Structures are given as C-alpha cells and as structure tokens.
Amino acid sequence: MERAKMAEAESLESAAEHERILREIESTDTACIGPTLRSVYDGEEHGRFMEKLETRIRNHDREIEKMCNFHYQGFVDSITELLKVRGEAQKLKNQVTDTNRKLQQEGKELVIAMEELKQCRLQQRNISATVDKLMLCLPVLEMYSKLRDQMKTKRHYPALKTLEHLEHTYLPQVSHYRFCKVMVDNIPKLREEIKDVSMSDLKDFLESIRKHSDKIGETAMKQVPGAQDLVDFSPVYRCLHIYSVLGARETFENYYRKQRRKQARLVLQPPSNMHETLDGYRKYFNQIVGFFVVEDHILHTTQGLVNRAYIDELWEMALSKTIAALRTHSSYCSDPNLVLDLKNLIVLFADTLQVYGFPVNQLFDMLLEVRDQYSETLLKKWAGIFRNILDSDNYSPIPVTSEDTYKKVVGQFPFQDTELEKQPFPKKFPFSEFVPKVYNEIKEFIYACLKFSEDLHLSSTEVDDMIRKSTNLLLTRTLSNSLQNVIKRKNIGLTELVQIIINTTHLEKSCKYLEEFITNITNVLPETVHTTKLYGTTTFKDARHAAEEEIYTNLNQKIDQFLQLADYDWMTGDLDNKASDYLIDLIAFLRSTFAVFTHLPGKVAQTACMSACKHLATSLMQLLLEAEVRQLTLGALQQFNLDVRECEQFARSGPVPGFQEDTLQLAFIDLRQLLDLFIQWDWSTYLADYGQPNCKYLRVNPVTALTLLEKMKDTSRKNNMFAQFRKNERDKQKLIDTVAKQLRGLISSHHS
Fold it and tell me: Boundaries of each Exocyst complex subunit EXOC6/Sec15 C-terminal domain copy (predicted)?
C-alpha cells in the first residue's frame, strides 16, 4: 500500500518536472536549450518525457491548424505577394551576389591593409616601448656625454659633480642594461683620470707661478693691491675641491705645501752675481714678494689649504735667508749709490710685505747694518773725492777780480773779513780752492747720509746721531788721512805746507756752520742730551799740527842740504873776514821762507823759526865736533865764528815778528859760549865759575870743550914741531894739557 502511494507520488513528481521542462523549452531561446535537454537525458524517464513532448507537439499542431484555417485567405494573399516578391528577390539576389563579388575583391585590399595596419600597430607598440626605455636611458647618455665634454674642456670639478649624479641618480634606473654596467665599471677610472688631470693642472700652475713670481712681485711692489689678479688660481681651487670630494684633501694639502716649500728655497737662493747690479737685487725681491703674495691669497681664499702657522714658518725661513744673503752680497758693494738704491729697494720690499701682514722689523734692523756698509762706501768714495781735490789744488790763495766772483766764493764757504771786503779788486782770499770744495763736499756727504735715513722710521734724534757719527768718521778718518797723505808727500813744498795750515785754520772755523747745517736739516738742537758733537776741530787741528811738524822737518831738511855744501878748511890759518858762502845762501833762503809765513798764525811762524835756528845751531855744533874733523886750527875756529855771528845777526833781525828781545838768539847760545871760550881762551873763568848758576859759560859742557880742545892740541903738536923750543908755544901746550886734565877732572867728578 505504501509502495503504491510512493509510486504514485513519484509519478506525480515526474509529471510535474516534465511539465516544467516543456514550459522552459517553449520559453527558452534555442541557443540555450542544450542544458535543459541534458537534464532530461540525465534522468531515467526520458521515454515518458518523449511521450509528453509528442502529445504537446500534436496539441500545438492542432492549434496551428485552427489558426491557419482561420487565416487562410490572408495566407493565400501572402503567398501571392510572396510570389511577386520572389522575382524581385531574385533580382536582389543577383545584385547582392554581384555586390558580394565586388566586395570580396575590394576586401582583399582591405585585408592586406588591415594586416599592414596590424603590423604597424605592433611596430607602434614596440616603438612606444622602445621610446619609453630610451627616455630612461637618454638622461644617462646625456649626462655621460656632458661628463666627456666637461673633461675635454678641463672642467674637472663640474665633471666630478656630473659623475656623482650619474652614479647615484641616473645609472640605478637603468642598471639592467649592458652599457650601464660598462659605465659603472668605468667610473673609478674616470675618477682617477679627473684626479690625475687636476693634479697635472696644479703642477702646471705651480710651474707657472714659479716662473712669474717676479712679475707678480714687481706689480705688488709698484701698486701693492691687485697683484694677485695676475694669477688664475682656479687650478688650485678645482684641484682642492676635487681632492676634497674624493676624500684625499689631506694628500693634496701635503703635496701643495711640500712643493711650495721647495719653490721657496729656490726663490730664496740668490744668484751669485746679485751684488753687481740693482736689477739683480730687484729680481730677487720681486720673486720673494710674488711668492708670498700668492701664499697670502691662498691663505685667505681657501679653507685650510695653508694656515697661518705654515705661512709664519715660511716667512721666518725667508727672513733669515734673505737677511743672510743681503749681508753677504751688500758687503761686496763698493758703490754708495748702489747701496742707497738697495736700501730704498729693501724699504719698498719691507713695506710691501708689511701691507700683506708680514712682520718686517728684522729687515729694518738689518738696514742699520746696511747703513754702516753705506757709510763705509761713502767714506771710500769721499776719500777719492778729497784726494782729487787736494791733488788738483794749486795751494795758492784764491784770486778774485770782481764782486760776483767774490760773492760766489763767499756763497760756497762761510767767510767774513771786513778788511778784505774793503780792499779794492783784484784781491785774494787767504785760503786756496780746496777750502770751499772740501766744505761743500762735507755738506754733500751729510746730504748723502740723510738720504739713507729716509723711510727708515727713525726719530729725528736717531737721524741726527747717525749723520753726526758718519760725519765724524769722514772728518777724523777720511779727510784726516787725505790731509796727512798730502802733508807727508815727498815733494811737498814749504809754500804748500803753509797754505795747508792756513786752509785747515779756516776749515776749523767753519765747523760751527756745519753744526748749524746738520741742525737745520734734522731739527735737533746741538744742546740736546745725547747729541753727538762734531770732531772737525780736532781733525783740522791735528792736520795743522802735522803740517807744522812737516814744515819744521822740511825746513830742517833744507838746512841740512845747505850744510852739505859747507867746505871748511879746518887747518887754515887765514881768516876771510866774511861768512861762508853756503851760510849766506842759507840765511837768504830762511829770510825768504819766513816772509811767506806772514799769513800763518804767529805761534806757528815763531815755532818754525825757532825750530830752524835750533836745528841750524845743533847742526853747526855737530859739524864742529864730528869725529872726521880730527884737527882744527884757531884760524878755522875764527872763520867758523864768523858764520855763527851771521846766524846770530839773522836771529836779531827778527825774521818772524813776535819774539821778545833776544829770544831767538838763544838758539845759538851754546855755540856762542863755546866759541867765546876758545877764541878768548878764557879757561880760568870757565874752570873757576863752573857749576855756578850765573857763570859766564854756563852752556858749555866740559865733554864738548874737551873734545874740541883735543882737536886743537893735536894741531898744535903737528904744526909746531920745529918751534917746540920757543917758550910761548911750549907754555901754550902745557896750558892745553893742564886745561884738558882739569876738564877730565870735571867730567869725572860730574859723573861720580
């Protein structure tokens, strides 16, 4: 029962499913009916479904038939119309066939074009992809090209920056391309190339500034600022930046400093002939200035490439070497003008470097040493000047024939003489040409000394002291030696010596004007404490004294020359009753000589005259007592007495004014007393009064008397050998022996 119920239920359910499928088939699009039919076949009752499907088809056919029957007339009409359309359709078919044929023909070209279009679109896509890739690569290539251009034009620092951008920004975007790998591998080589090329540029720069240091220094010493503009420092900056970017700044700094130290040593090595010309010194200074102008600019335009300690070290080395070189080479210089020019050059050198901040006190200290060298060269030059003046002088008073000439001489030399001014022309100055010439040359020397002191930053007192000390050396050493050389000259005459004494007297008086002259140019009063005094007075006094001594010596030599002409017959018994010819000539010479002494200071003339008389008296005494005169007669002694009287007469005549009474005659007192003793044969008085302060023959020495007596004794024995039996001769001989014995006794007692 239950089975029957279950079978009935299943039958109802199957029928319902079949009905649903049929409805779905009727309502579903033919294209989508496949899944519906598959569900039928998937089941087990497709036979019953087919039965139902047939039943449903029949039902529909009956409905169609009913409908067709209902619309039959319309169907007939439609068939009629359809037949009509058939003919038109055939025509249309033909037209469509023809059109299709034509379309197929035309379509072939279109298909070909479409294929071409397809290929173009493919190529377009490829090109677009390629362009996209190239757009990524082009900046890389452009940067690489830019890098090459920069390196080609030696713009190395921008090239290094470009290389950095290329490496870190552009290449990573296209790193998968093969050419990029080549670039990446080439980057270290490019860095080294940039490094090497920039170093090469630096070396060229260092060589260039080494060669052009003198030009830089010359410009700096002429105008100071702007000298560094002559140099293109870009190679240094580029190389510094490049090495800094590459992390090798310290290497670069060490290399730069090492090379510049080497160049400094070369610059500071002076040429061996530097002292010969000023240009030698100028080039030497220009190179040093140029070197430090460059270093100063580097110091202030780079951060740490060089520092102040490095610059100071170089400057200390430069100072020591420069000063040593100047000491050595200036010592060879004998031209004061060159030394003065050198001093001005050193001052300019020091002032220029001082503008750049370098300490130059040592240079100015060294200039004080050069000042001594300059002073020595001046003294040598003026020694020649004085020598020429003294050699060319005529040693005669300057004659003047007009007022203009007189004023010209007075304008050259400070001289005032009221008496001379009143005298009519022509007239003469008492001094010779060398007085105004020497005076003016002393002033020129002072001017030359003053020139050296300029720009040395010395006080007026220091300048005054320097000038006075140098002038003192000129007077006490140079001029004094020149005067002494003239005075000691072998062929100097008495007239020249007299004129030298007159000249030095006037030069001595002019010393106060030289003091005033120095005071006027230095503005330092001579009364100022520590002011050096001029020693001109001493110089001219010494020269005058030397000339005086030379006059005395010269006079004595002249006297000796006359005495060499003396030809006494010591054995004569005759008397000429007149003085000897040589002595008369000698006295005449002395009179004419002392007449020239009128312009000499009185004391000089008196001393010269007294010296001459003393020398004459001494020489006559020596002539009388010389050993070669072994014998002499009383007659010869009397002739000799006439000559002495002539000398005494000359002394009494006052050849030089200023002597008191018989002062000049005292020069001959020894001779006079000796001759009187022998001629008057007044031995009793001599022997009796000997040793008394007021004795008549006080000036007669017993040794002298004995010597002369011995000569007369020998003569008496020889000439009177046949008259020895005459009583008076024998008595006289005994007397001579007695006197001689007594004289020996006096001599013996005196010595004891």
Answer: 362-711
Same domain? 128 vs 255: no
Half-sphere exposure (CA, 13 Å, Cβ side) for 547?
Answer: 29
Condensed to tens digits (0 to 9), the pLDDT of residues 705-748 reads: 888 888 887 554 545 444 444 556 667 777 788 888 888 888 88
Write out the E strands in 442-518.
none
338 and 203 share one domain: yes
3-state secondary structure of 427: strand
Q: Do 213 and 322 belong together in one domain?
A: yes
Q: Give dist(CA 455, CA 462) in Å, integer.
A: 13
Of the candidates 345, 319, 331, the residue with the CA atom closest to the CA atom of residue 455: 345
CB atoms within 10 A of CB 11: 12
In this structure, which amino acid lies at residue 206? L
Contact predicate 170/140, CB 8 Å: yes
Return d(Cα 462, Cα 524) in angstroms, integer.
10
Question: What's the pLDDT score for residue 400?
Answer: 92
Asked if the model's pLDDT at residue 291 lies above 70, the reply is yes
| Residue 399: its H or E element | strand 399-400
Is 293 inside any structural domain?
A: yes
252 token code pair? 């670069």
323 and 234 in a common domain: yes
* 464 within 8 A of 522, measured Cβ to Cβ: yes
**CB 199 within 8 Å of CB 187:** no
Which region among 15-29, 400-414, 569-583, 615-629 has the lowest average model confidence (pLDDT)?
A: 15-29
| Radius of gyration, alpha carbons of the chain | 71
pLDDT at 32: 64
Q: Is residue 405 part of a domain?
A: no
- Which of residues 638 and 165 earns the better pLDDT score? 638
Q: What is the pTM of this model?
A: 0.67
Same domain, 148 and 217: no
In this structure, are 154 and 206 located in the same domain? no
Quick check: is 206 in a domain? yes
**SS3 assignment for 104-165:** HHHHHHHHHHHHHHHHHHHHHHHHHHHHHHHHHHHHHHHHHHHHHHHHHCCCHHHHHHHHHH
Domain end marker among 327, 357, 387: 357
pLDDT in tens, 85-129: 777 778 877 888 888 888 888 888 888 888 888 889 888 888 888
Check pLDDT > 80 for residue 318: yes
pLDDT above 90 (res 443) = yes
- Beta-carbon contacts of 447 under 8 Å, excluding residues fewer than 6 positions away, are 521
* Residue that terminates a domain, selected from 310, 329, 357: 357
Domain count, the chain: 3
Let me know: does 604 contact 508? Beta carbons within 8 Å. Answer: no
